[in-house]
From TrEMBL:
It holds the Pfam family BON. This is Outer membrane lipoprotein. Coiled coil: none annotated. InterPro entries: BON_dom (IPR007055), Lipoprotein_DolP (IPR051686), TAT_signal (IPR006311), Transpt-assoc_nodulatn_dom_bac (IPR014004). Residues 64-131, 140-207 form the BON domain. Keywords: Lipoprotein, Signal.
Length: 222
């Protein structure tokens, strides 16, 4: 149940400008958890539409992933309240869970809870048993994520839009629809980034031909 996604860097903007725009976008994304009660607005806003254009997922899959994350988070919150700290990331309907649970029983319950959500294809449960992470640890994880994404842009070896980065306790998880070469490049950049303890690939692999088709559907028909 692994997933990956890379691509060419689009546009002729200088790398520095591209990096600045990415960091601004990441800063905005970091504020999304504060808007948990506003999912319909966030999911259907201009930012979401722009992101879909450069994503290898279909528009339907993109929106469905947003909905899955919302539904799973609500289920976990209703079932366990504040006893768990679980981050939910859905990519192409595969759900990655990261964070902390108070014991192995609760951690095990998460799989069935997620699997029961409509349209979920699979669950990757990377939740650990232990106390909740501190706010400073979470801030450091957010910084690592921003740095890894910025380095993706700087290296210009693949499109940063095609690899989703999630960091938990200095462990970087990489998701996306990618080729093997793109996956290797992304993993190398992440592994050599400051503060990264470990890199876990949660990629869905596609062929070079499929990557070209997804990146330029109009050209594939010519």
């Amino acid at each position: 149940m692994k997933t990956t996604s890379p691509s060419r860097l689009a546009g002729a903007l200088p790398v520095r400008a591209g990096r600045r725009r990415l960091l601004l976008g990441l800063a905005a994304a970091a504020a999304l958890p504060l808007l948990q009660g506003c999912f319909p607005v966030v999911a259907t806003g201009v930012g979401a539409g722009a992101a879909m254009v450069s994503d290898r997922r279909t528009g339907g899959a993109y929106v469905e992933d947003e909905s899955i994350e919302w539904k799973v988070s609500n289920r976990i919150r209703q079932r366990f309240g504040g006893t768990v700290h679980v981050n939910v990331t859905s990519y192409n309907r595969n759900v990655l869970l990261t964070g902390e649970a108070p014991d192995a029983t609760v951690r095990g319950e998460l799989d069935g809870l997620v699997a029961g959500v409509e349209n979920v294809r699979g669950v990757i449960n990377e939740v650990v048993v232990g106390p909740h992470s501190s706010l400073s640890a979470r801030a450091n994880d957010a910084l690592i994520t921003s740095n890894v994404k910025a380095r993706f842009v700087d290296t210009q070896r693949f499109s940063a839009h095609n690899v989703k980065v999630v960091t938990e306790a200095n462990v970087v998880f990489l998701l996306g629809l990618v080729t093997r070469a793109e996956a290797d490049a992304a993993a190398t950049v992440a592994r050599t980034s400051q503060g990264v303890r470990k890199v876990v690939r949660v990629f869905e692999y596609i062929s070079d031909e499929e990557a070209r088709r997804l990146d330029d559907p109009a050209g594939a028909r010519r």
